[in-house]
Amino acid sequence: MALQSLDIVRRSATTTSSPNVRQAQTGTVAKLIDTTKCIGCKACQVACMEWNDLRDEIGTNIGAYQNPHDLTDQSWTLMRFAEYENPDKGNDLEWLIRKDGCMHCADPGCLKACPAPGAIVQYANGIVDFHEENCIGCGYCIAGCPFDIPRISKRDHKAYKCTLCSDRVAVGLEPACIKACPTGALVWGTKEDMQQHAAERVEDLKSRGFDNAGLYDPPGVGGTHVMYVLHHADQPQLYNDLPADPHISPAVSLWKGATKPLALAGIVLTALAGFFHYIRVGRNEVHESDEQAAARETERARHE
Amino acid sequence: MSDPTTDPSRRTIQRYTPNERTNHWVVAIVFVLTAISGLALFHPALYWLSVFLGGGTWTRILHPFLGLIMTLAFAVLAAAMWRFNKMEPRDWQWLRQGRDVVNNREDRLPEVGRFNAGQKLVFFVFVVCMLALLLSGIVIWREYFSLYFPVGVIRAAAVVHGLSAFILICAIVAHIYAGIWVKGSIGAMTRGTVTPGWAWKHHRAWFREKLHATHPRPRSD
């Protein structure tokens, strides 16, 4: 979904600079998900469906609140429910609910892995967006993502994920999920403001006995434009395996980093080595003397 | 068939049968298509190569199928050529004299059978790379197989795929150059025949094998 009012700072499979004279002067944007205020009502999921015209298949109830069971090409956000018995509080049951979806990394693994020029872009405001018209459906973004977010559609074989409502944000509106949240668990603003707001929330939580409350803005991916306030920021994995230290996998960095120019150079050098061998040493030809030697040997063989 | 030994200036020696030549060129053609589509997805500077297969999406769809055809066709060729590519003691000596090889001083080298040590080495590089490409390619084939593998395996497979493709492409470049360098080799793979002088110069042990197959020595016992 190309948006002319949003400047692109990074573009997949593109080796030259994107136009970036205009900067995000007022700072990048961020969505803050305060898991401590979330009641799991799924209004955000419904708002996402409604704004983006998505209708997932009706699934089956497996006796859990989580529905659908996983992110899909039609479900770009999903409330994940975890039941945690806190050993520090006499095994009290804690219902940890996390709104899952694209984290909009500052250093996006999907974009790094993508081989199709312009299929994944990063806007100056921090949003990482898929432009499906350029997507070739290879699924490299899935291998590149540290959070297991992109999904390939079975219908058109293109990759889909949360756009952070880039179309709404481009015209000064907040994302649909933010608008729908009834408890204020979802907050929207500049990244700086959201960090500040989160700091206040963390202080409040600590005063209420959540000593390990904190902000989840993982530095391994350069920080994210979707952040969490967690009661247990020391154990993010409690929240349905939110990674403790997400980063672009070394395998992906190798595959999409040094390997690319080095391999290309290697192939070119091999071809050049051949060319200059031909120029310097020259062709290896059979001469008349070789034919005569072969004929002599043939004669000998006939008379033996 | 006329006796190729009647006129020494006209006769030729068969090096590759029509089946072997067909098999070789099927592998070669499919390799070119697989390589250009793979390179298109490997480096953005080569994405333009995707036009040859009808654009990025068609490249993504066709590349794995082309890869399967290539590996299958190569497997048939490799099976036929396997017994001629076993390394022998004289092959190691040949390799040690690499300087004589690249400087066209073949008279100083040990005698060579149907294939020389360089060809044998390239053969085994092809075998290993094709196998690595097949296995890693299945893992990263998103449409049918990736769902059966954890993401760590997929990432590792992507690295293996890129690396083995790089080695294979370099080996093929060397293979093609060897054909341009050693005159008569391309004719061997297109016409199927070489001159006796060619066989005597480049593959003397093989030349003698052929000779004694045509003119069996009288038994001495």
Q: In DSSP terms, counting alpha (H) and pi (I) runs of 4 or more, how many helices of chain B? A: 9
CATH superfamily of chain B: Transmembrane di-heme cytochromes, Chain C
CATH architecture of the largest domain in chain A: 2-Layer Sandwich
What low-confidence regions of chain A span 5 or more consecutive residues with pLDDT below 50? none
Q: Which sequence of strands runs across the widest sheet of chain B?
A: 1-2
Q: What's the count of strands of chain B? A: 2
According to CATH, what is the topology of chain B?
Fumarate Reductase Cytochrome B subunit
- Look at the structure and give the mean pLDDT of chain A: 94
CATH C-level name of chain B:
Mainly Alpha
Sheet with the most strands: spatial strand order of chain A: 9-2-11-10
Radius of gyration of chain B: 21 Å
- Rounded average pLDDT of chain B: 93
The N- and C-terminal alpha carbons of chain A lie at a distance of: 83 Å
The number of helical runs of chain A is 9
Order of helices and strands of chain A: EEHEEHEEHEEHHEHEEHHH
Please state the overall shape of chain A, judged from the principal axes of the Cα atoms: elongated
> Main β-sheet of chain A: number of strands, strand sense, barrel status?
4 strands, mixed
Main sheet overview of chain B? 2 strands, antiparallel
The percent range for helix content of chain B is 55-70%
Number of domains of chain B: 1
Verbal overview:
The complex is a heterodimer of chains A (304) and B (221). With 304 residues, chain A is α+β, with helices and mostly antiparallel strands. Chain A folds into 2 domains: 249 residues, Alpha-Beta Plaits (2-Layer Sandwich); 45 residues, no CATH class. Helices cover 30% and strands 17% of the residues of chain A. Chain A has 9 helices and 11 strands. In chain A, the strands form 4 sheets. In chain A, strands 9-2-11-10 form a 4-stranded mixed β-sheet. In chain A, strands 1-5-6 form a 3-stranded antiparallel β-sheet, with no helix packed on it. Chain A has a two-stranded antiparallel sheet with strand order 3-4. The longest helix of chain A is centred in the last third of the chain and has 22 residues. Chain B has 221 residues and is mainly α. Chain B has one domain: Fumarate Reductase Cytochrome B subunit, CATH 1.20.950.20. Chain B has a two-stranded antiparallel sheet with strand order 1-2. In chain B, helix 1 runs antiparallel to helix 2, helix 2 crosses helix 5 and helix 5 packs antiparallel against helix 6. The longest helix of chain B is centred in the C-terminal third of the chain and has 31 residues. Chain B is elongated, with a radius of gyration of 21 Å. Chain B starts with 12 loop residues before the first strand and ends in a 7-residue tail after the last helix. In chain B, 33% of the residues are buried. The N terminus of chain B is likely disordered.
